[in-house]
């Protein structure tokens, strides 16, 4: 499609957008009395209006039923979390039994490392991308120290090539081959938080498995964003948060995927608690742990229902819309944003550079050549919420659920004024 940098063209794209009515389903913050142009759905998704109802239900059940709410609420709390598995499995390309919702992301990665990082004298190395998200780096380093290993030698980082802003799949595969039978685990952010790159998860998983390593993915930026087929790709495990593209609220519950081949096994190491034991016998308070036959075996505590409720509200929307149409719009709106950026860059004599490769999801990261933080502040004052990363990068994620093509056009105009101002 031949794009145009005009208001009329953008409005026309909106008129044809099958998802346009969903914009009204979200609360937008306001600046100068007008809804903002929101580019940070990759950091904290906007609040769906229907979420309030899900929270209120739990609050009402709590006030009217108190402890009886565990069994007598319309959505009883004792198995409330089970409602999320089926719709979430569709989002990540899994079987329902392979998915569970619990805890928070870094906590879940630690817990999954108990099962999937079991170093031996020979096989103990972990492969990840260089400059992984800091929490993931701290997680890996502390796991290694916990096992008495030295992170300096046990962590193998795949680097970008000099002068390039992205990782090459062939470099990841070569590194996996090089480490070979010393490789215990591959754990990478499937969609990179900084440059927005989508890794070739299928190929990398296959390569990791072929040298005998476990392969896991941190999908904080992948879930609700790109097409995932965790089951078909033969991924061992994955975890993600729900507050980025999945719009479930600050710090909210995390999801995990555990390949079905590890389910209903008694010999897999795992940290356990009463919510992971068979539901039929959970309240018999017996001393023996009998795992749930699905990913819920990794559950530990009784579910934090007030944080799971917004996730359920969000999943209802994903269920209605489906990943296919979200991805269709995402591809188009990101392409339109890229086009607008290129236009503005031309009109302002090359004042920035796009560092996101073509293998991308919802995010475009822009490296500013001239002014940095002051431009970010200017955008914010003028109703555009972007995200600033050192040294000079602005990240833009036009979430397809609620961003409009007109937002992209208006952003371009504000950006141009911001660059041209003195
Ligand atoms: C957002 C993000 C996190 C956040 O972890 P929490 O435990 O939810 O605070 C972790 N890893 C990656 C790759 C992220 O993008």
Description of the molecule:
The chain is α/β, with parallel strands linked by helices and 422 residues long. The model has no long low-confidence stretch (mean pLDDT 96). It contains 13 helices and 17 strands. The chain has helices spanning 7-15, 51-65, 69-72, 82-92, 105-116, 134-146, 151-154, 169-179, 201-210, 305-321, 323-347, 373-381, 405-420; strands at residues 26-27, 30-31, 34-35, 37-38, 47-48, 99-102, 125-129, 155-158, 183-189, 214-218, 237-240, 254-258, 352-354, 364-368, 384-385, 387-389, 393-396. The relative contact order is 0.18. The two termini are 36 Å apart. The strands form 5 sheets. Strands 6-12-11-10-9-7-8 form a 7-stranded mixed sheet, with helices on both faces. Helix content is 37%, strand content 14%. The radius of gyration is 23 Å and the shape is globular. The protein folds into 2 domains: 7-35 and 322-420, Alpha-Beta Complex (Aspartate Aminotransferase, domain 1), CATH 3.90.1150; 53-321, Aspartate Aminotransferase, domain 2 (3-Layer(aba) Sandwich). The site of pyridoxal-5'-phosphate has 12 residues, from α5 and α6. Pyridoxal 5'-phosphate binds at residues 105-106, 133-136, 218, 221, 243, 274, 302. This is Kynureninase.
Give a quick precis of the structure.
The chain is of the alpha/beta class and 422 residues long. It has helices at 7-15, 51-65, 69-72, 82-92, 105-116, 134-146, 151-154, 169-179, 201-210, 305-321, 323-347, 373-381, 405-420; strands spanning 26-27, 30-31, 34-35, 37-38, 47-48, 99-102, 125-129, 155-158, 183-189, 214-218, 237-240, 254-258, 352-354, 364-368, 384-385, 387-389, 393-396. The longest helix is centred in the last third of the chain and has 25 residues, at 323-347.
